[in-house]
## 1
Amino acid sequence: MIIISMGNGKGKTTSAIGQIIRSLGHGFKVCFMQLFKGEGFYGEQKILVKLDNLIFFAFAKEHPCCVKDANLDEVVNQCYFAMEKLEELVNSSERYDLIVLDEFNVALRDKFIDENKFIDIVKQLSRKSNVIVTGRGAPQSLIDMADLVTEMKEIKHPYKSGIAARKGIEY
């Protein structure tokens, strides 16, 4: 099954983490791969890396839109390494019940990874795993091939009132 969590509202990663917890609760093996989120900063990383049956990878830990000093070439290289890791998962005899590709929609939207290659890899992965792809900007081709698509829609957000991100809520 291919699941997409997209949209401009909060909750895409949070939803995927809920699915991870559900899967781990059934003894499933999970691979969690994140883009654009610095390691050890986000609460989910701190707890998930401690859990059995979960492997965690982080690539391109800074997005140029969010971090002024982010090196665009390094971001693109890190996204390339993430794609290489996905190809390894396709070709590996190791099987995961769930693979979560967090913020990969953003990498697709910003052209940091090749859309056609990514679609091909996700199709291959979905033959042996459930795959969740999160982030804003999911391309129509990914939406079309997915089995389940949920759009998170922002109605109101505290940022717009000048309230800063809160530990344990946004990160």
## 2
Amino acid sequence: MHRQELLRLLEQHQTRFMDEAGFVRRAIAFVEQHPDCFKRELLPTHVTGSAWVVSPDRSHVLMLHHRKLDQWFQPGGHADGDADILRVALRETAEESGIDPSHVTLLSDAIFDVDIHWTPATADAPAHEHIDIRFLVEIDDGLPIPGNDESHEIGWVGLHEAMRFNNNRSTYRMVDKTRQLRHAF
């Protein structure tokens, strides 16, 4: 995947959420203007990849308590120059969950959600903005989830409780989209 592939995915992404539609337009403009959009050194904004991880019955989502940011999130991270943002999302999911990549199942290679948000400064980086491209994946919630050292805690959260862990708008959108999937399931 290269910049053109991400642009193709963004142009194909349909959403009923006005805020997300605005993020998609901003993401397209940014990616078109910045050939190095996948490098974390591009400040104050760069592209990241993450995954909304659901259980097979879509009743739970995998969330982790991020060590540096002290907040609950879905798995994801920096592309570090890798233009294949889907590969980034899958890699980060396997690394942060501690699950063998063979147990991480991509449910669709279409974008699931797009979010643009600020990340506060840490000891390693100044405050900056992420254009986060999210994909929908599944992991068997019966498997042990060992996590890694990037998180204080990781585990399955009931879909109905996810907003108690992270009540931002993007979590709301992904929970709502998952509820819609459950109705089609």
